[in-house]
Amino acid sequence: MSSSAVPNSGPTVPAAPSAHPSGFSWWKVLVAGAVGAAVVNLIVLAVARLAGASLVVVDGGAEHAITVGGVVGSSVVPLVVGTGAALLLALWKPVFLRIAQYVGGGLALLSVAGPLSSGADGGTVAALSVMHITLGVAVVTTLELHRRHRA
Question: For 93, left (φ over 0), alpha (ψ -120 to 50), or beta?
Answer without folding.
Answer: beta
